[in-house]
Fold these 4 entries.
Entry 1:
Amino acid sequence: MKSFIFTLCISVVSLIYAPMTIAAEKFTLELEMNNGELTPPILSVPAKTPVRIKIRNTGTEPVEFESTQLRKEKVLAPGANSVVVIAPLKPGKYTFFDDFHLAHPAGEIIAE
């Protein structure tokens, strides 16, 4: 009887924590910033999943990834690489831009 209860407890704990482990995995994608040009300009991500964006500045000037909606900003020197981690998003569209090159079009993160 004790082994049955122990097995039952382990099963219940596994069912509770397994989805949390899966949800904690980050969806990773890459963004290239080059003197105001964003490649790709539209990033599609799964909703309700943490997102990790690897940013590369391939330009000759500093860039700043910024999203006021997501409350994120990251400055990169020419040739630098960095990462921005975004908490799980509700379905929708979120704008980001290069704050040092505002004359260029903004990018968009689409969570679906």
Entry 2:
Amino acid sequence: MTECAQKIGIMSDSHDNLPAIRAAVDFFNIQQVDLVIHAGDLVAPFTARELKKLRSPYEIVLGNNDGEILGLHHVYAGKVHLPPFKIRFANKNILVLHDAGILSEIKQQTSYDMIIYGHDHQSAVDRLPDGTWIVNPGECGGWLYGESTIAIYDIQQDQVTIHKLEY
């Protein structure tokens, strides 16, 4: 029996950039991801509605610019979480933050397979000696550094890849 390949789409800091969000959703759908995690700063509920076009489930963690919390909760009842948010998917324990401020503290006592964060808009992939992935998908919105990036974690291959969005 062959194991079904499972992928997690990872994004953060979309900051109301509708073309970038649409490109990310299209990319994740083409890649047939099984779950999408947004690590914060969607910002407004009208942009969050684009995620409903995903063919996979999704989870959203609030960021420091997600001021319309009630609106986001209304659009995504049960899908918007305060950080740190813990999720178990495909036998992987995942912790999702927005700001990496507590990351060094968490790294020392981790029991997670992956820690996802955003906030600084810079993509980064690291692996701790215990095998824990530390992933920042960068900024989906592309406002600060001019590059819209997202990430995919291929669980079967145990590999994280950063992807630049074209739109």
Entry 3:
Amino acid sequence: RHTAMVEDEDEDPETKEKILEKLMDQDEVDPEPVDETMVKKMILTFEKRSYKNQELRIKFPDNPEKFMEAELDLNDIIQEMHVIATVPELYHLLVELNAVHSLLGLLSHDNTDILSLKHFNRTELTDIDTLHESEEGAEVLIDALLEGQVVALLVQNMERLDETVKEEADGVHNTLAIVENMAEFRPGLCTEAAQQGLMQWLLKRIKAKMPFDANKLYCSEILAILLQNNDGTRELLGELDGIDVLLQQLSVFKRHNPSTAEEQEMMENLFDALCSCLMLPANRDRFLRGEGLQLMNLMLRSKKLSRTSALKVLDHSMIGPEGSDNCHKFVDILGLRTIFPLFMKTPKKMRKAGISDKEHEEHVCSILASMLRNLKGQQRSRLLSKFTENDCEKVDRLMELHFKYLEAVQLADRRIEGEKHEMVRRGEILDDSMEDEFYLRRLDAGLFVLQLICYIMVEISNAGISQLQQRVHQILNLRGGSVKAVRHIMRGDLSPQLPGKTLDAD
């Protein structure tokens, strides 16, 4: 290298000038326009080189020198084909000329450098902005990729990669980006992708004994995306023992906070995935058997960053009749000692973690409401007796929350009524979408928490413990409230109720 530098220094200045001029002239040449003819020509060249490479590899399997040049030629044309990503309206040519099939075939090429790392996975073809530029072209491409079992091939390809090699780790990251782009463009493919081995690979990668890195974070993100509003993928995760994997990975955070912002993001993704899974009733039993309640209880007591999300998970695990076993188990593991201090006072650390008082109080009240709905016998008695302790201090706190949220909702209602009045005065029509928007604003003001609180009030008042009923009525009368108003909040024009959390006063 030193010798070359010396030679460069001795080079004639005139020669240097000519070289520079030549380079500048090259820059000034307009690039060839990317049109249908150019794309067809590229695809034809690609097909020829791909076939030639395949032929030479079969002919000389043990003599790389014989097919190396053909492999480099193939490599070059694939690089040139990146330009097709700038014209999504021509994607249909990739499909019509069978190039998608050939590209997918290269995913299982013996030389992983050919496609997996530097080309197909560079994601230009599936970049979400590009896909939206030409919806029609994108639809055709995605259809062809799915027909060619693209996810199964990508998963097989990732299994071949060694993530201790930087280029191959980048290949995994880029592959996940392709999946994310396709899922964002067409959410319906999540079920198919999960079933084609992606779910299994993600779980395996998440639990792999490797240092935390960008790929583990990305895996947690893709997993959370796959589980959004999708009972099919939730069921599959449950069948693959994914609940146990999530609990094992989260258990690290019961005594230690994440060490970086990225690790915290991964922790939150895993908690989101767990909450999503628990929307499926069958997974609540798997969570119970995996000792998920014990882990959440420990997290709530340890006062680490995981506490906020643990409360949310606990809430999801107890909802509905299918949450009954979890409610009983929670009382058995002395969970009441954990939840009531959180009910009595919203911890300051929760606020620091970016959780509003309303969100915290909603989860705690939802947990208490689920337990009052589901608990039977001795466990129910233990819960009710908690409300009588220390001169019914928990009833006082319940009533304090009742009036806090009642005032907030009434204020929102007055504003909404004012807006409705103005709209009518201007001759505007109040359609269903406007009514839905107003309802969401009432929920945002605290209507749902208020309904939960009212449900708890009615349950403890009707539990046959006179001091609880007397205290509830006494405070209602003092503050100008009434049982009738409470029942109205629960039964009033509050459609549509939130799924899985409807309240009745009966």
Entry 4:
Amino acid sequence: MANAPRYSGSDERMTAPVLGGKIISPWGVFLDTDTGLGWGYEGNALSYSAYVGASGSRKDKNESMQAGSKRLKGMGQIKSRPQLGVSAAYNLGGVIIGATLEHALEEDKHKETGKAFTHLELSLGTHLYEGPYGSIDAAINSHFGDRNYLQTWYGVTTDQATRSRFKEYRASAGNISNGMSLSWSVPINEHTQFSTLLDVQYLADKAGKSPIVEQRLQASVSGELQYTF
């Protein structure tokens, strides 16, 4: 289960079940419901992966299993589209340096929400605790986007302004948000563990000044039961 804002910048919240799975072959090929189909390598200190998956989406109405809100009426739907991603992490004496770059392909170049866009996440993480009560990990992170990313998710075009309750807003490339995450995993048996995750983000000026943003501090919490075999 997860409880999160209805969309990035919303002060409304939604609770929904989260189902997922991941299959990894001995050769590093994986299929993951979060990232997609890809190949990865995990060494003692360095790990990296490349994948093809689907980008996020947002609707301008309330739906229990979809990001979006009726407050966005007139903004149009941001459709999911094919996305290419690369990710790398390096363990430097207990501090994990990570970077993930994702590029969503163009869905419709003539549509406000259909342009190709790029997103970058940089992170620093560490293990805080490991013992009989499970393990606790923490990370700080920053998110960045190109002009199309910021305009798609936080901008308001002239046409969108005439159809919605928002004034026109031209977003530019830059910092989207900065935040932290905290996860606690507790083993139940050899194959099963329960994990909780708290993620907090503060929308930076490029995104935070958008008229669709009702609250710049965004927090989400989730709990999941994981089974491996």
